[in-house]
Amino acid sequence: MDTAAARDTSPSPSVISASAVSKSWGDHQVFRDFTAEIPKGITGLLGSNGAGKTTLFGMLLGLHHRSGGQLQVLGQDPNTAGPELRQRIGYSPEHHDLPTDVAAQDLVRHIAEIHGLPKREATTRSSDALWLVGLGEERARPIGTMSTGQRQRVKLAQAIAHGPSLVILDEPTDGLDPVQRDDMLELIRDIGTKYDIDVVLSSHLLEEVERIADNVVIIAGGTTAAAGPIQELRVGGGGAVVVLDDQHEQVAQGLRARGIEVNIDRSRLLIGGDEPIESIAGAVRDVVAEADASLRRFAPIQQSLEDLFLAEVHGE
Amino acid sequence: MTDSTSAEIYDRGYRVYDGPRTGTGTAVKSVFFASVQRALGLRRKFRYKIAPVLTIMFAYIPALIFVGLAIVIPGDLSGETSDYSGYFGITGIAVMLFTAFVAPELMINDRRTGMFGLYLSSPLEKLHYLVAKVGALVSVMSLVTVLPSLFFVLGYILVGNGPDGFGNTLEVIAKIIFTGLIVAMFYSLIGMAISTVTNRQGVASAIIIMFFLTSAFLTNSLVFEADAPDWILALSFVELPVDVAARIFDEAQNQLDGVSTSVSMGTLVGVLAVSLATIWFGYQRIEVTK
Lengths: 316, 290
Known about the structure:
The complex is a heterodimer of chains A (316) and B (290).
Chain A: E1 2-3, E2 16-25, E3 28-38, E4 42-47, H1 53-60, E5 68-73, H2 78-86, E6 89-92, H3 104-114, H4 119-132, H5 148-160, E7 166-170, H6 178-193, E8 198-202, H7 206-212, E9 215-220, E10 223-229, H8 230-234, E11 240-244, H9 248-257, E12 262-265, E13 268-271, H10 277-291, E14 295-300, H11 305-314
Parallel strand pairs in A: 4-8, 4-9, 6-7, 7-8
Antiparallel strand pairs in A: 2-3, 2-5, 9-10, 11-13, 11-14, 12-13
Helix pairs in contact in A: 3-4, 3-5, 4-5, 9-10
Chain B: E1 20-21, H1 24-40, H2 47-72, H3 86-90, H4 92-112, H5 115-120, H6 126-158, H7 165-197, H8 201-225, H9 240-248, H10 261-285
Helix pairs in contact in B: 1-4, 1-6, 2-4, 2-6, 4-6, 4-7, 4-8, 6-7, 7-8, 7-9, 7-10, 9-10
């Protein structure tokens, strides 16, 4: 037996580190220059259909060898450390096809065993994982008798039962109704926060990623369109919002006089266009002081993830 | 009565696992046992047990009849006691049906249900997976190749119609195990190869049965109706394993007429090699998480 207690021995601070990764399927180039540093926490992977999210998961698992570039997952190269690395990764595929005539607990235990857990541990932990995802009472039921929501939970349970350091979830909310989706997102959030398991999930629902992820990676055109903490990316567009109690017109005129673009939105001034907040902060301070206005709030303009995605992927 | 001072609520719940992990060997073993269970319908509903149980019973019935007859009319069957290879011919249909049922179940079901992808996202590589599957299928097939023949011999031994002497008995038992495993591997690999090229279990089962029956019909027609060379009979895959068994037991009366030992053995090895190549290259082409 080899010990897998190497949870914190990774030489890289990033969970995943990709540099100029390329990958082709025959003549079709899926990635040409994918570069991203994915830190600990929950990371959302966004991209249009066919952008290569699932292919990227395959490369992270060492199932597909990249054509070029450097890739490190949990401090190891998936091309060379595939089996050893996969022992520490939990993977939940996008499809809902699981053996219909197998009990949930049997499946989860079996997957835990092949990830290297001794039989007794696998049995205990499969039960624990199923309780965690809310299927404790249903664990003896054949998967074929379960709803889509329950199957998604079984997939999540099999991904975490063996105690992975990293969990990769491919569209974990696909096919769920809004209530089930909320529950699933809460579960994923718990797994990422309470149990210190790093999570990378793909979703085509930006609002989901925005709700639970700390970081985001946007793939477009075979390369990294954007990557980083969501909060930073959302303010990356520049500009600031100024909320005043009074003197709106006077402050707006003062800012325009200094060459700063200003749009009045009820009690707010949206200023600066694409300029970073640091370059307009001094002007705002001076104008507000000159107008003797009451400043309630001055903050960078935050884009929604959808705005960011559309801007990066479609240039809108 | 429980000591109230030592009582505690024991609820560990889900937690981080930093304990030891077993290697790939244990993973292969786990897939092996899961596959054996699946083939036999274990831990599944009753209806999944019917086909394997009936087929296995079918393979033991002739042995029961022979041994029963040897008990009722001792001596009359003494001439048959040396014809051990013939038993592989008697159970041929059962073995073929069992192959048609079990091989697609073990191979295709994993691909259709996404289990193959889950396996590959674990420490298992395709080679490990296939080793576990071949091992499981050959083991399960041994239930209808090795064990019925052993049962047949042991029955004869018990009623006094077995081989003469301890040494001969051991030799016959060893030959039965060896031959049974070869026959199990022959049927298993053909079944697996056919199950590699289609994703429909019913279609695979039908092709497996047709493959064996058609090969026997065509080769016999060619040799006996169209005067084709005798060696073509070695391509009758119903008769080939029985012929190989007869040659291992040196029982000339069961061998294919006009087919030399080298052709017979060479064909068997060739079939095994082609089957293995079909399985290996077939699975190399399968991509998961593409």
